[in-house]
């Protein structure tokens, strides 16, 4: 990768209370709507066009778009909290929005300053949802120079949002030069096949389809810019990991809330218990208390790092590699505990809700299926190694789309 300094990113300062409160209220309204039929929609496993309309109408797609270009001018801390709130109701749609925020911000991380205004105006005016096709462990795409532009061939799996997004961010190396470019492909581009094959255990409405590119034309105007190792540009990856951690926490919070409803609905008690109801039994109170406390601690760490992310991002081209590395490791720490808390809470909540809560119509399993599926995105053990290597020896992992 080549080093190209970006003069600025269009993000400044940190979120104020009024901003946070406004978008929390918006997110809760959307979450309530999603929660009403989350299980039925999960079972239908249809492309989430209706859910995207709900996000769009609520103004959530443009939360991070700069106000000067028609967006809400919000901060990542706010976006991460929105992700967390939505995940408590529907992990799939939370993932869809989380990836949109990161993909849309490719404008800031990859496009030169003089080109950003046009991109921001288009995404706001045309109300785009941004999908992606950047999975680095999949077979490589072939980007061949042709005249002033390029031709794209190949395939990618796990392309979140591609089934419903108006545009798709793609990363590919230029054949013969090794230059890695980020560019945008419309969902209806000639030669692009969207394979409707996302049929997995969880996150079923994340529109994470496979894509096949057959001589797709990439014009110069479609190119955002080169993917570089300039420090502020590489903050995109810690941002992705921070988004993941937030929806793991949100899923844990949702599982706890649903478990609470079920537990309070149990009118009797275990026959050996002196309590009148299960919710009054210290055994069940202890389990719930343990899971609640752990989730609250991880949520507090997520909130702290959301603000730190905005603060560092505000430095733009002045961000140093040591600053970037320190924040990336702090986010890796969060990723470890958020993954473990999310999976544990979504699993152990069944201990207090009883065998009847495993009925298919109850839907408590949806939280576990969602967090278990996405938590396998990249091995959490390597995040532990990342944290340990930095703590013991000050060593940072090589830059990648995972670190």
TrEMBL record:
| One Pfam family, short name | Acyl-CoA_dh_2
Coiled coil start-end: none
User: Where in the numbering of this chain does the Acyl-CoA oxidase/dehydrogenase middle domain appear?
Assistant: 143-216
Does the UniProt entry include the keyword Cell division?
A: no
Asked whether the keyword Flavoprotein is assigned, the reply is yes
Instruction: Name the pathway.
Output: Sulfur metabolism; dibenzothiophene degradation
In the record, the note on similarity to other proteins reads:
Belongs to the DszC flavin monooxygenase family.
Catalysed reactions, as listed in the record: dibenzothiophene 5-oxide + FMNH2 + O2 = dibenzothiophene 5,5-dioxide + FMN + H2O + H(+); dibenzothiophene + 2 FMNH2 + 2 O2 = dibenzothiophene 5,5-dioxide + 2 FMN + 2 H2O + 2 H(+); dibenzothiophene + FMNH2 + O2 = dibenzothiophene 5-oxide + FMN + H2O + H(+)
Record the organism: Glutamicibacter arilaitensis (strain DSM 16368 / CIP 108037 / IAM 15318 / JCM 13566 / NCIMB 14258 / Re117)
Keywords linked to the UniProt accession: Flavoprotein, FMN, Monooxygenase, Nucleotide-binding, Oxidoreductase
Please state every residue range assigned to the domain named Acyl-CoA dehydrogenase/oxidase N-terminal: 19-124
One example of the protein's molecular function in GO is:
oxidoreductase activity
| EC number of the protein | 1.14.14.21
Places the protein is found: Cytoplasm
Under PANTHER family, the record lists:
ACYL-COA DEHYDROGENASE, ISOVALERYL-COA DEHYDROGENASE, MITOCHONDRIAL-RELATED
- In this chain the Acyl-CoA dehydrogenase C-terminal domain maps to 243-378
**The protein, known as:** Dibenzothiophene monooxygenase
Q: Mind telling me which InterPro entries this protein's record contains?
A: Acyl-CoA_DH_C, Acyl-CoA_Oxase/DH_mid-dom, Acyl-CoA_Oxase/DH_mid-dom_sf, AcylCo_DH-like_C, AcylCoA_DH/ox_N, AcylCoA_DH/ox_N_sf, AcylCoA_DH/oxidase_NM_dom_sf
């Amino acid at each position: 990768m080549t080093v190209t300094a970006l003069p600025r990113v269009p993000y400044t300062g940190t979120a104020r209370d009024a901003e946070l409160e406004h978008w929390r209220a918006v997110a809760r309204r959307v979450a309530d709507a999603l929660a009403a039929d989350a299980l039925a929609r999960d079972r239908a496993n249809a492309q989430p066009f209706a859910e995207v309309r709900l996000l769009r109408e609520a103004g959530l797609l443009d939360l991070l778009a700069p106000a000067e270009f028609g967006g809400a001018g919000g901060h990542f801390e706010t976006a991460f909290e929105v992700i967390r709130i939505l995940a408590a109701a529907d992990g799939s749609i939370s993932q869809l929005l989380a990836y949109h925020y990161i993909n849309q911000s490719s404008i800031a991380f990859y496009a030169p300053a003089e080109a950003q205004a046009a991109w921001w105006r288009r995404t706001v005016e045309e109300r785009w949802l941004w999908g992606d096709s950047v999975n680095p462990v999949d077979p490589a795409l072939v980007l061949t120079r042709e005249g002033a532009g390029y031709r794209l061939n190949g395939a990618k799996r796990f392309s979140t949002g591609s089934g419903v997004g108006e545009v798709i961010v793609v990363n590919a190396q230029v054949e013969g030069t090794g230059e890695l470019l980020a560019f945008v492909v419309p969902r209806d581009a000639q030669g692009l096949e969207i394979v409707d094959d996302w049929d997995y255990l969880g996150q079923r409405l994340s529109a994470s389809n496979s894509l096949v590119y057959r001589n797709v034309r990439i014009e110069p105007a479609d190119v955002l810019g080169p993917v570089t190792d300039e420090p502020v540009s590489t903050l995109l990856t810690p941002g992705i990991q921070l988004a993941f951690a937030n929806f793991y926490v949100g899923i844990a919070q949702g599982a706890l809330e649903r478990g609470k409803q079920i537990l309070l609905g149990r009118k009797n008690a275990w026959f050996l218990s002196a309590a009148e109801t299960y919710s009054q039994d210290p055994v069940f109170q202890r389990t719930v208390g343990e899971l609640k406390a752990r989730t609250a601690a991880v949520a507090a760490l997520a909130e702290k790092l959301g603000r730190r992310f905005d603060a560092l991002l505000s430095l733009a081209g002045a961000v140093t590699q040591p600053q970037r590395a320190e924040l990336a490791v702090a986010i890796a720490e969060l990723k470890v505990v958020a993954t473990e808390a999310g999976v544990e809470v979504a699993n152990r909540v069944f201990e207090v809700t009883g065998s009847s809560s495993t009925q298919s119509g109850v839907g408590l399993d949806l939280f576990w299926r969602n967090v278990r599926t996405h938590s396998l995105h990249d091995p959490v053990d390597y995040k532990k190694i990342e944290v340990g290597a930095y703590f013991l020896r000050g060593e940072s992992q090589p830059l990648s789309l995972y670190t």
